[in-house]
């Protein structure tokens, strides 16, 4: 739905009888997911959805109703009436804030990406070409090409309105051989056949290099983390550690930590060209650029409008993407300065082990290699690690150029070289498929 | 309700599809979340739509559309066919196997005594707020939270083989958290009410209040608890903690689509290759793990799956030996089975069905054994309660799990609380280290409501269960230096 159409639709809803303040969120999704395994398309599905969420507020009481049908005006009117009736039975929530009433201009990056140009037929042909490349190399390929054309629109009875299209492309591919695997991705808002094949070949090459891994006895060592590994870990960090109120109330790792965290900057920017993201929240707040770490110095974190008012701070809504800057050192140079260490393609299954120190655990997968005397010498068996992000950021000794990554949340991350990264236990050589 | 679905399958068959099925789902949900003294969130949702799956010249196509209008159904069939034609650009070399199944006409209704959707909001809110009040009564607790979630899925399923199936399943789940803050630390303690396909009668206000008081006190105790020792120890897991370990190290590992590489790019594969069936010693003789999608109140009990196959009960591990996998109709032939285990489910009308973990549980010990007796045989060990940090590799081998609360065992008795304790092992090593599990008096079921799998991610629910169980010589490490 385009901006004017969405504005008219939401305007009509706001004209319906209501007993108090009303917020309207309209989300549309059309997503084709072409999934493959064993060098064949195994699942191929089109999802078309629309969701209309009506949030009713009476003084300090609020409730919401979500429908997935937007054609029945009578049903919508009844839902509004029911939401306000429900409100009357709620206890007061003193932290409830009025609707922002903010008109948010359409971001310049909102545009039709190449995702829309990829038809069902084209997606099938491109994936078939990738599968053929795998078969030609006698490598088993599995992955997903997903293209989504989405929109979100918001309006409220205080005069607020926002709308944005956000196209999305997610291509990731795992190449598996008898004793090792490789992985690559292409994330963003557009994709071409060439970029898809480039990622495919990268995964195949990595897989070929990953065969016959040797055991590296787990210990603290220097690592070079490729962007997915960095992004996967920092996204978890944001979830556990970037809330200002938790920090102020003693419920965060940053409540008792005031040291400098290395020298990199971590920020969010919905207009970042490498991976643009939504510029407003589901609550109708503008999401601008937010800096969380400025050259290693912790800044004001995510701050709700309620907490901002309590603390006399500016509100900073949840980010819609996350960017870590880097100093642009080529990956080869990051590796070249390592006498003895490990190159990690990808992390997997990261979970917090201690929120109080931002301690996490996870596994390496799909391409883990030994670095000796500045060269990648051989693949190693995957390992588990246990590490605190506070330590990790302080131990960064080099960084590369940020690139788009993140299958679920838009991230722009550089490769990092980190000293004294703590590997704790071994997995096993990959078993054969089937 | 079946007519449009029947038409969809007929249209697909007329277009040359060898198989087609169509589902119409009505999904109603309510979630309530409390924050300290307030109800911070209350959302009710109503979601309706259809999903059409076709097998055309050996290639799959799936399309979905909101609502249940003839034009939407026709459109979904046409799109599913277009998508299947595109899938045919890269067909499976060995074709798509499809296990036979009789055409069924059946209905399944989960039972409940108190319809959670019909109850006054105040009664539901009161349950959470009463628990929060109790938690906040403890001065160390600086944040009390809770949620209630209710879900009702009405499903109508038709396939081109003549099956016409209807299910109506209502489930309820709840959780409480207390966060205690001290001068030098903060700690969280939670309690999860067993998630079940029942109504509001699953929740007891007195139990919520009692658990709230307990977890608040234990959150405070965690603040000053000693760091766990590192090394090799005997451990005991309570039923909730072990439920998640069963889920991760057995449930996912024995999904046959994972074994066959269908999930390699996202959730991963499995070390449990087909050659291990009926041969591999998964665990000690004490370990029998049963799958049961007929389990009353089980979250994966829906009467039949999204392949049109009735729910079944079968062994995954029997007396320590691998005896089975979870399968769908596309996968049964890989282990030379004529029939699917009926474990293929989609989380939504817009999702394609995939093999999912069934209700899966560790059978209780056959000899009378209480938790005190179980612990009594340990000189120095750890007792893990509740779910916390959990991570496992993509082959389901190397894992590391924590507990929401952990106690030290000294000379056969549970003693002081510890924090940051994690047990780390490899799946077969761990299950072979099991030397005893308590008897059926102490067996409890726990629901998993957020099982992620698929690409795009689908979230499924299933029930696990166990009695307190002992494992010898397990590596303990710490999540904090």
Walk me through what this model shows.
The complex is a heterodimer of chains A (434) and B (481). Helix content of chain A is 23%, strand content 38%. Chain A has 434 residues and is of the alpha+beta class. In chain A, the strands form 3 sheets. A 6-stranded antiparallel β-sheet of chain A has the order 3-2-1-4-5-6. In chain A, strands 10-9-8-11-18-17 form a 6-stranded mixed β-sheet, covered by helices on one side. In chain A, helix 3 packs parallel to helix 4 (193-209). The longest helix of chain A has 17 residues, at 120-136. The relative contact order of chain A is 0.13. With 481 residues, chain B is of the alpha+beta class. Chain B has 2 domains: 2-224, PmbA/TldD fold; 227-478, no CATH class. In chain B, the strands form 4 sheets. In chain B, strands 8, 9, 16, 17, 18, 19, 20, 21, 22 and 25 form a 10-stranded mixed β-sheet that branches. In chain B, strands 1, 2, 3, 4, 5, 6 and 7 form a 7-stranded mixed β-sheet that branches. A 6-stranded mixed β-sheet of chain B has the order 12-11-10-15-24-23, with helices on one face. The longest helix of chain B has 19 residues, at 205-223. Chain B starts with a helix and ends with a strand. The interface between A and B is large, with 93 and 93 residues.
Keywords, please?
heterodimer; A: 434 residues; PmbA/TldD fold; 2 domains; 6-stranded antiparallel sheet; B: 481 residues; alpha+beta; 10-stranded mixed sheet; 7-stranded mixed sheet; 8 helices; 20% helix
Short summary:
The complex is a heterodimer of chains A (434) and B (481). Chain A is built from nine helices and 19 strands.
How is the topology of this model organized?
The complex is a heterodimer of chains A (434) and B (481).
Chain A: H1 3-15, E1 21-37, E2 40-58, E3 61-67, H2 73-87, H3 120-136, E4 140-156, E5 161-176, E6 181-188, H4 193-209, E7 220-225, H5 227-241, H6 244-248, E8 266-268, E9 290-294, E10 297-298, H7 305-311, E11 322-324, H8 331-336, E12 340-354, E13 359-372, E14 375-379, E15 383-388, H9 389-394, E16 396-399, E17 403-405, E18 411-413, E19 416-426
Parallel strand pairs in A: 7-12, 11-18
Antiparallel strand pairs in A: 1-2, 1-4, 2-3, 4-5, 5-6, 7-19, 8-9, 8-11, 9-10, 12-13, 13-14, 13-15, 15-19, 16-19, 17-18
Chain B: H1 2-14, E1 19-35, E2 38-56, E3 59-66, H2 70-87, E4 105-109, H3 121-137, E5 141-159, E6 164-181, E7 186-196, H4 205-223, E8 226-227, E9 231-237, H5 239-251, H6 256-259, E10 289-292, E11 313-318, E12 321-322, E13 344-345, E14 354-355, E15 360-362, H7 371-376, E16 380-385, E17 390-392, E18 398-402, E19 405-410, E20 413-419, E21 421-426, H8 427-432, E22 434-437, E23 444-453, E24 458-466, E25 469-478
């Amino acid at each position: 739905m385009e901006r004017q159409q969405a504005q008219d639709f939401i305007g009509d809803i706001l004209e319906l009888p209501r007993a108090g303040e009303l917020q309207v969120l309209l989300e549309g999704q059309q997503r084709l997911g072409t999934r493959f395994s064993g060098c064949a398309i195994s699942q191929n599905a089109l999802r078309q959805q629309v969701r209309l969420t009506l949030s009713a507020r009476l003084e300090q009481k609020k409730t919401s109703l979500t429908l997935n049908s937007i054609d029945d005006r009578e049903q919508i009117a009844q839902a509004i009436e029911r939401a306000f009736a429900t409100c009357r039975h709620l206890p007061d929530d003193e932290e409830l804030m009025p609707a922002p009433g903010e008109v948010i201009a359409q971001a310049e990056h909102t545009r039709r990406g190449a995702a829309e140009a990829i038809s069902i037929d084209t997606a099938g042909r491109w994936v078939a070409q990738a599968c053929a490349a795998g078969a030609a190399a006698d490598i088993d390929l599995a992955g997903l090409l997903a293209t989504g054309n989405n929109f979100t629109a918001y309006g409220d009875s205080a005069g607020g309105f926002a709308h944005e299209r956000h196209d999305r492309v997610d291509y990731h591919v795992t190449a598996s051989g008898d004793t090792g695997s490789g992985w690559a991705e292409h994330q963003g808002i557009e994709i071409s056949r060439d970029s898809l094949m480039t990622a495919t070949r990268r995964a195949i090459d990595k897989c070929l290099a990953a065969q016959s891994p040797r055991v590296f006895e787990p210990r603290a060592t220097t690592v070079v983390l490729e962007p997915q590994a960095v992004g996967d870990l920092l996204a978890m960090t944001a979830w556990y550690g970037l809330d200002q109120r938790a920090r102020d109330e003693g419920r965060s790792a940053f409540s008792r930590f005031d040291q400098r965290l290395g020298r990199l900057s971590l920020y969010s920017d919905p207009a970042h060209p490498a991976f643009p993201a939504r510029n407003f929240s589901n609550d109708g707040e503008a999401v601008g650029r937010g800096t969380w770490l400025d050259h290693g110095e912790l800044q004001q974190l995510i701050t709700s409008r309620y907490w901002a008012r309590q603390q006399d701070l500016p509100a900073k809504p949840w980010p819609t993407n996350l960017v870590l800057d880097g100093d642009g050192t080529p990956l080869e140079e990051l590796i070249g300065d390592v006498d003895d260490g490990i190159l990690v393609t990808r992390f997997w299954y990261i979970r917090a082990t201690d929120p109080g120190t931002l301690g996490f655990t996870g596994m390496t997968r799909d391409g883990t290699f030994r670095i000796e005397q500045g060269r990648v010498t051989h693949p190693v068996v995957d390992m588990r690690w246990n590490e605190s992000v506070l330590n990790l950021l302080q131990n960064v000794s080099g960084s590369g150029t940020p690139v788009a990554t993140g299958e679920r949340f838009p991230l722009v991350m550089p490769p990092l070289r980190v000293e004294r990264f703590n590997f704790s236990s071994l997995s096993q050589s990959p078993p054969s498929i089937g | 309700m079946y007519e449009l679905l029947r038409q969809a399958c007929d249209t697909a068959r007329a277009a040359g599809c060898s198989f087609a099925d169509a589902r119409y789902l009505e999904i109603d949900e309510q979630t309530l979340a409390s924050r300290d003294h307030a109800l911070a969130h209350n959302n009710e949702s109503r979601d309706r739509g259809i999903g059409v799956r076709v097998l055309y010249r050996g290639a799959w196509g799936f399309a979905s559309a909101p609502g249940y209008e003839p034009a939407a159904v026709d459109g979904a069939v046409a799109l599913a066919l277009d998508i299947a034609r595109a899938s045919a650009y890269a067909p499976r070399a060995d074709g798509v196997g499809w296990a036979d199944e009789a055409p069924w006409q059946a209905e399944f209704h989960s039972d409940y005594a108190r319809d959670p959707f019909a109850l006054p909001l105040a009664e539901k809110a009161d349950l959470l707020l009463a628990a929060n009040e109790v938690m906040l009564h403890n001065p160390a607790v600086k944040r009390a939270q809770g949620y209630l979630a209710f879900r009702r899925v009405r499903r109508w399923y038709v396939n081109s083989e003549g099956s016409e199936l209807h299910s109506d399943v209502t489930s309820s789940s709840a959780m409480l958290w207390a966060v205690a803050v001290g001068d030098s630390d903060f700690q969280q303690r939670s309690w999860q009410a067993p998630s079940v396909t029942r109504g509001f009668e699953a929740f007891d206000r007195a139990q919520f209040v009692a658990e709230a008081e307990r977890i608040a006190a234990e959150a405070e105790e965690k603040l000053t608890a000693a760091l766990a020792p590192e090394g090799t120890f005997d451990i005991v897991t309570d039923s909730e903690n072990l439920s998640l370990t069963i889920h991760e190290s057995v449930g996912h590992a024995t999904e046959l689509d994972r074994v066959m590489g269908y999930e390699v790019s996202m959730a991963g594969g499995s070390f449990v290759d087909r050659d291990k069936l009926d041969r591999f010693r998964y665990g000690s003789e004490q370990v029998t793990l049963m799958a049961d999608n007929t389990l009353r109140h089980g979250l994966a009990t829906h009467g039949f799956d999204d392949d049109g196959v009735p729910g079944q009960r079968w062994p995954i591990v029997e007396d320590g030996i691998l005896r089975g996998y979870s399968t769908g109709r596309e996968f049964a032939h890989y282990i030379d089975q004529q029939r699917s285990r009926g474990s293929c489910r989609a989380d939504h009308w817009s999702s394609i069905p995939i093999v999912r973990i069934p209700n899966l549980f560790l059978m209780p010990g056959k000899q009378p054994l209480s938790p005190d007796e179980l612990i009594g045989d340990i000189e120095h060990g750890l007792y893990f309660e509740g779910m916390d940090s959990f991570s496992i590799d993509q082959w389901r081998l190397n894992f590391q799990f924590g507990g929401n609360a952990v106690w030290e065992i000294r000379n056969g008795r549970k003693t002081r609380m510890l924090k940051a304790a994690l047990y780390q092992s490899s799946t077969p090593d761990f299950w072979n280290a099991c030397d005893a599990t308590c008897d059926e008096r102490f067996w409890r079921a726990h629901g998993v409501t957020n099982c992620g799998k698929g690409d795009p991610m689908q979230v499924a629910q299933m029930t696990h269960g166990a009695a307190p169980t002992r494992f010898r010589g397990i590596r303990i490490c710490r999540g904090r230096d």
